[in-house]
């Protein structure tokens, strides 16, 4: 059970951030057990090929940091974001600056009563050596496994943050918090999630700030396992199924006849907020072509656009969603 107690000020200080280092660490789950992460199989195949010829990577250490059985990862590997879009170099600097005694304590807390594997135990004899070895391995693994795909990953994560922010503005904090996981319960200022049989954490946010971070590789909400860690929930992002798509199916029916096949395909592909670059990648066409069609769809009220950091994200409007659904109804409920 994971439980956080909020007061009014805690709710007012709730923030979002996405972490490249979090994706780096949690992607090890998919790499080790791809049968449980079928949506990521294209990434798994590419990454295994990239790692096969990699020099200077202690992959054994990285896999041992993911505790067999529980799947827990030491907290110091994934520091809480300190901005909505932190740079991985800054996050790696924070890992390298972690106090040696915390490194060792976090590793032992993640393993709980389990015995440390031989390679990890050998490095843990000197926590400074362990910290530096972990930071080096994370950096090299990031370069090989995550960095080549980070722009499209970040686009999905940013789109999710926009969606959740809209949910917060429209329906309030309780609706937002209970949307993070199917087990989430909100009652009397307390958020409870029943996400892991070995996790029993109940703490007050207590003015320490509360951050929500979407992640692509978690199958349920996760959190630091230490009671003294900054209050954070990392939750499954929306839109993961679109992450590795390359080309949508050819649109059929009246929508393609109405707006043309390219714009119909774009409207059907836009099932969640996405950038021009991401849409071009999914459809296998140039970004300039996508930009032209989006401009037309925007002028006709079928898509909306909003800026998120460095990106402009597009989403279907209500009218666009009705047309893409192909149900033949007018958005106001009258026959078309």
Describe this structure in words.
The chain has 336 residues and is of the alpha/beta class. It folds into 2 domains: 235 residues, no CATH class; 81 residues, Orthogonal Bundle (Arc Repressor Mutant, subunit A), CATH 1.10.10.10. The chain is built from 15 helices and 10 strands. The strands form 3 sheets. It has a 4-stranded mixed β-sheet with strand order 3-4-1-5. It has a 3-stranded parallel β-sheet with strand order 2-6-7. The protein has a 3-stranded antiparallel β-sheet with strand order 8-10-9, sandwiched between helices. A hairpin with a 2-residue loop joins strand 9 and strand 10. The chain is globular, with a radius of gyration of 22 Å.
Put the structure in a nutshell.
The chain is built from 15 helices and ten strands. It has 336 residues and is α/β, with parallel strands linked by helices.
Major sheet description: 4 strands, mixed
Please provide the count of β strands: 10
Written as H for each helix and E for each strand, in order along the chain, the element string is EHEHHHHHHHHHEEEEEHHEHHEEH
- Provide the number of structural domains: 2
Q: What is the general shape? A: globular
List the helices and strands and how they pair.
Blueprint (H helix, E strand, L loop, with lengths): L1 E4 L2 H5 L1 E3 L3 H13 L8 H12 L6 H7 L22 H9 L3 H12 L6 H7 L2 H20 L3 H22 L1 H6 L6 E3 L2 E4 L7 E4 L5 E6 L16 E5 L17 H6 L1 H9 L4 E2 H8 L3 H13 L3 E6 L2 E6 L1 H8 L11
Parallel strand pairs: 1-5, 2-6, 6-7
Antiparallel strand pairs: 1-4, 3-4, 8-10, 9-10
Helix pairs in contact: 2-8, 6-8, 12-14, 13-14
